[in-house]
Each structure stands twice: as structure tokens, then as C-alpha cells.
Amino acid sequence: MRTILESHEAGELQADTVQESFVMKCGGSTLAALPDSFFHDLRQLQQSGMQPVIVHGGGPAISDNLAKLGIESEFVHGLRKTTEDVLDVVEMVLSGSINKQIVRRIQNVGGRAWGLSGVDGSLIQAKPVANSAEVGFVGEVTHVEANIIQGVQDMGYIPVIAPIGIDLSGQRYNINADTAAGAVASHLGVRRMIVVTDVPGIMKSVNGEKVVLSSVTVQEIDDMIETGEIYGGMIPKVRAAMSCIHGEVQEVVIVDGSEPQVLSRVMQGEIIGTRIARG
Ligand SMILES: Nc1ncnc2c1ncn2[C@@H]1O[C@H](COP(=O)(O)OP(=O)(O)O)[C@@H](O)[C@H]1O
Ligand SMILES: CC(=O)N[C@@H](CCC(=O)OP(=O)(O)O)C(=O)O
């Protein structure tokens, strides 16, 4: 398979595809395992004129650090119960080590990346989620300062965003990374969001065998949540996908980060992973 840069050089990509800005959500489940070739692919996409925006998670690293510090943590309906103590660790891990790890990995392959969290410039504005009495300082996004992201892109950098939100009083919120990525995609008005995780897409048992669904409808997603075939960390992904495809985002593709050249293959329209689209 040729890279997207080679295809671009061969004049095979449409001009609008080449200029395209897209959001990529990188899950904590897969970050440590992502090979250098993943970041090479990302850099080549950027060099070919595409404008990636990364929103990352880091759930497993947060849990490890909380455990080391002896701070209790539990998930309620997929959201981490977040006290001020938990929030300190969430911010330290996401805005600190994970964010800078991704920036370094992009820079190590010669790319240009700029790390920031939703707190910087009040990039991700948030309010408490509806069940905040149960989960504490967990936020839902009310606004994204798209011009900050575009400013970073205009300077030639890939924005790498940690999903911490802030409100007008300066209160920080822990935001699920899939939810934050969906909100960033909606506010930027990108055509596509790519969700990079540790499974090859949404899987379903068919005749006792697990198969990856190449596409799913909103109705199928609802049914699969109902039957428990979609559970745990896949739920916020499909919910974020369903909520952003009602706006300008046309498709959300869930893929495995360890697939060779997965990003350029998605951008070239190859059928890979699971595609969630409108209609
Ligand atoms: N139907 C499904 N198909 C594939 N994975 C699923 C499904 N339902 C639940 N999952 C789980 O979702 C996980 C991915 O979510 P998560 O662990 O939160 O990843 P990330 O850190 O990338 O956000 C998979 O490893 C799998 O255990
Ligand atoms: C509110 C909430 O649950 N926030 C998540 C934020 C990180 C995240 O979502 O990371 P992944 O993408 O790796 O799951 C958490 O504290 O784990």
C-alpha cells in the first residue's frame, strides 16, 4: 500500500480531500502500543496538506496513578467519579504526561505538534453533567473555541488536546475523551472523525463468531446497547459518534491503531473498521 503523501504526489487525491481537517481521538487503551509507523503516517497526512486535530484519552494511566496514590476511583455508567483529588490526578496525567508523550512521539518522527488542554484559553468550556450529584466534577461540553485550534493549525502544528474542561468560574471538569472529541469535531465542523482504539471496530457475534461490522446505523447501535453487545468503553464512542453526525460531521470511523497506515487508509476512503454515518 502506498502512503497518502505518495498518492498526493501522484495527483490522485482530490484537492478538497488534501485540505481536509479531521479529528482523531486516540484512546488510552492503545496509546502505549501505537507503533512509530502510526505517527509517520500522521506526519505524512499533515505534509500532504491535511489538518489533523488530536483529542486523546488516558483512562488506564489515570487509574494506575490513582491506585499508586491510594486514591479510590470508580466508574458510574462509564464516567469516572471525580472528586477534587481525582481531578488533580486526571489533569496531571492527561494534560501532563500523556499529552506531552503524544507531542514527543509526533516530533520524534519529524512532525510538528502543539499540546494543550481544554483549560488553555478556555478551549473546552464545560458544565456539570446531568448526574453530577453521582459522578462529581465530570463535565459536558458547552462550547469549543475553534479559533484557537485553527490558530495552532495555521502555525503549522497538529493540535493535541487533553479533555479537561473549564467553566466561567474557573472550575475544572473531567470530560470523557470520546465525548470531548465529538464536541471538538462538531464545533470545528469537520467532515470526519476517526476514533483510534484497541479493537478493529464494533464487533458482533454472528453464528457464534465475532465479526467486525463495516457500518452500523443509529438504530442498530441502540439495539446493541440494549442487548449488551455494545458495553463499557464502546458506549461513549458510539454516543459521541451519534451526537456529532447530527451536525456537520458526516462520518465517524472506529479503527484499531495497530492496523498499518490506518489513518491514511481511512482518509483515502478504504473500508476499514466500523463506519457510523448519517441516514
Ligand atoms: N461491540 C463491541 N465491539 C468492540 N469492542 C467493544 C464492544 N463493546 C464493548 N467493547 C469494548 O470497548 C473497548 C474499547 O473502549 P476503551 O477500552 O474505553 O478504549 P479507549 O481507551 O480506546 O477509549 C474494547 O476494548 C472492548 O472491550
Ligand atoms: C469522565 C471520565 O470518565 N473521564 C475519563 C477521561 C479519560 C478518557 O476518557 O480516556 P479513554 O479515552 O482512554 O477512556 C477518565 O477519567 O478516565
From TrEMBL:
**InterPro entries this protein is in?**
AceGlu_kinase-like_sf, AcgluKinase_fam, ArgB, Asp/Glu/Uridylate_kinase
Q: Give the main location.
A: cytoplasm
Catalytic activity field: N-acetyl-L-glutamate + ATP = N-acetyl-L-glutamyl 5-phosphate + ADP
Query: Pfam families attached here?
Result: AA_kinase
Which GO MF terms are attached to this record? acetylglutamate kinase activity; ATP binding
Q: Where does it live in the cell?
A: Cytoplasm
Start and end residues of each Aspartate/glutamate/uridylate kinase domain? 22-256
Q: Which HAMAP family match?
A: ArgB
Function in brief: Catalyzes the ATP-dependent phosphorylation of N-acetyl-L-glutamate.
What this protein is called in its record is Acetylglutamate kinase
